[in-house]
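pinging the channel bc i need a second pair of eyes. not urgent but kinda urgent?? the chain im working w is below, pasted from the shared doc
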Amino acid sequence: MASNEALITSNPYRVGVELTRKVIVTTGNEIAGYDVVDYLGIVRGLTVRSPSFGKTFVGAFRALRGGNIKEFAEVCEAARHEAFAQMHAHAEALGADGILGMRYDATEFMGGTTEVLAYGTAVKLRESEARSSR
């Protein structure tokens, strides 16, 4: 299995979906075709990010004219991806098959520095009777 750092650096994180490999991740409370057989606990990934001086400088000028600020959006996307990858690795370390109720939370520590948290409930799954009889 690829290391957490490899997940973060070797894969483009904005291709439409996050990479999930062995662990199914959903914002819902169930996974179609599977029954939850054990709850392993809360898993999380946490990162604290701030834009570089260059991104802050360019972003500040873009903010003057309004609209989407690409430099800041890139920092936010990278932070969410890193938190997601850490949460995913935490679930794999517990032997989880899925993560239910996945959420993101963000808090500003100080001007320009933001904590991003990805969290959910790690579970063990088994194929449901209906799915396995197909």
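so DSSP finds four helices and four strands in the chain. and The radius of gyration is 18 Å. — does that match what u expected or am i reading it wrong
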